[in-house]
């Protein structure tokens, strides 16, 4: 008999005990009890023998974790899984320990990167998520990268301030990240600051004004799916897109930076209405490197690296890391990366600003805090 069971499954059973006899019990009653006991023992022997043979063919079923879409906060990360070092060899050992999670995918991070002098590398690793954050000096700018590989699409999430769409409440990204147990987070699109763009939250269409903005949709499977400005021209077409692509939420800023592995030209941006695309500005963006594999980035000033950049320059850095797709988010003082509840990049003027939303990545392992095995 072949079967598939979780290793915690128990096959042993306790023998059935007969009721104790009395001195007045008849010989026939004793005989029947003995026969029943013998039959019971024989049945147990047969069952155990079958189970023993079945155990020879058991296949281990790997436990899979996810976070319910309706969960207001994610599972708490294990403090022991966080680390910080200036030695790339330490991080490489962590990467090697995550071989099962990575599968056949390779990282953009590698120990031979020319890391920003004086910077450290932060990381988190458990069975469901590997996250690494580091800094590089590129074009005299300080560029912070966060690379994330997760086990399930439910681990890329969005949180809006006050957990209520349309709320006028704005909060610091670091506070929101701590509140939802984010391992790593990035500022969102600041949806509450403008009235244009396509906004989907919890699978519901709240705003359809996408004539002038590209949209990044995030699916239940964890993929970034784009629509180009003006492509979805009616509520019906947006709702059909949501259903056909299993969309959970959207990000409405842009433009699209990388699509199908190709860096978009600066000319493709056209006269994009937001984001100061041609100005020297701090930048923020999110990209996908592979299945359930992401790169987030910010660009700004830090120490001697005091040059911000036009959007195309920032896009080229994300493309060079191997992004299959990438999308711009709100920059300037909004550009904020959070790791383990604290800012990782240097925010403009060394001062976080309040905002309406974040995108974050979470562990799915702690079933006591909302995960579903």
Provide structural commentary.
This protein is of the alpha+beta class. The chain folds into 2 domains: 1-61; 79-369, no CATH class. The protein is 19% helix and 28% strand. It has 6 helices and 21 strands. It has helices spanning 27-55, 88-97, 99-102, 173-179, 235-245, 311-320, and strands at 82-85, 121-125, 129-138, 141-150, 156-160, 171-172, 184-187, 197-201, 204-209, 215-219, 224-227, 247-251, 256-259, 262-263, 283-290, 293-300, 325-329, 337-339, 342-343, 354-355, 357-361. The strands form 5 sheets. A 9-stranded antiparallel beta sheet has the order 1-2-3-4-16-15-17-13-14, with helices on one face. Strand 2 and strand 3 form a beta hairpin. The longest helix has 29 residues, at 27-55. It starts with 26 loop residues before the first helix and ends in a 12-residue tail after the last strand.
Brief account:
By secondary structure, the protein is α+β, with helices and mostly antiparallel strands. Helices cover 19% and strands 28% of the residues. It has helices spanning 27-55, 88-97, 99-102, 173-179, 235-245, 311-320, and strands at 82-85, 121-125, 129-138, 141-150, 156-160, 171-172, 184-187, 197-201, 204-209, 215-219, 224-227, 247-251, 256-259, 262-263, 283-290, 293-300, 325-329, 337-339, 342-343, 354-355, 357-361.
């Amino acid at each position: 008999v072949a079967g598939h069971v979780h290793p915690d499954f128990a096959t042993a059973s306790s023998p059935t005990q007969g009721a104790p006899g009395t001195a007045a019990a008849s010989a026939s009653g004793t005989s029947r009890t003995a026969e029943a006991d013998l039959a019971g023992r024989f049945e147990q022997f047969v069952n155990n023998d079958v189970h023993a043979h079945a155990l020879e063919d058991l296949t281990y079923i790997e436990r899979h974790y996810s976070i319910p879409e309706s969960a207001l906060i994610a599972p708490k990360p294990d403090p022991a899984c966080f680390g910080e070092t200036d030695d790339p060899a330490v991080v490489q050992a962590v990467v090697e320990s995550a071989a099962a999670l990575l599968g056949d995918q390779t990282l953009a991070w590698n120990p031979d990167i020319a890391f920003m002098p004086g910077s450290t590398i932060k990381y988190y690793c458990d069975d469901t998520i590997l996250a690494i954050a580091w800094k590089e000096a590129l074009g005299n700018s300080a560029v912070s990268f966060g690379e994330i590989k997760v086990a399930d699409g439910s681990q890329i999430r969005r949180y809006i301030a006050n957990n209520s769409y349309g709320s006028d409440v704005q909060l610091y990204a670091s506070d929101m990240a701590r509140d939802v147990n984010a391992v790593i987070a990035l500022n969102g699109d600041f949806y509450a600051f403008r009235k244009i763009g396509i906004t989907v939250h919890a699978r519901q269409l709240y705003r359809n004004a996408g004539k002038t903005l590209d949209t990044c949709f995030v699916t239940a499977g964890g993929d970034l799916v784009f629509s180009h400005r003006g492509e979805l021209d009616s509520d019906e077409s947006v709702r059909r897109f949501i259903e056909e692509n299993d969309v959970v939420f959207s990000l409405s800023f842009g433009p699209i930076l990388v699509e199908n592995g190709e860096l978009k030209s600066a000319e493709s941006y056209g006269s994009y209405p937001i984001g100061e695309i041609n100005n020297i500005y701090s930048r923020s963006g999110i990209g996908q490197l592979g299945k359930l594999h992401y790169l987030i980035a910010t660009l700004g000033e830090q120490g001697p690296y005091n040059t911000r950049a036009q959007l195309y320059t920032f896009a080229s850095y994300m493309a060079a890391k191997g992004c299959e797709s990438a999308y711009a988010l709100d920059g300037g003082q909004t550009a904020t990366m959070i790791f383990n509840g604290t800012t990782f990049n240097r925010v403009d003027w060394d001062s976080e600003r309040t905002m309406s939303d974040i995108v974050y990545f979470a562990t799915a392992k702690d079933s006591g805090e909302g995960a579903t095995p």
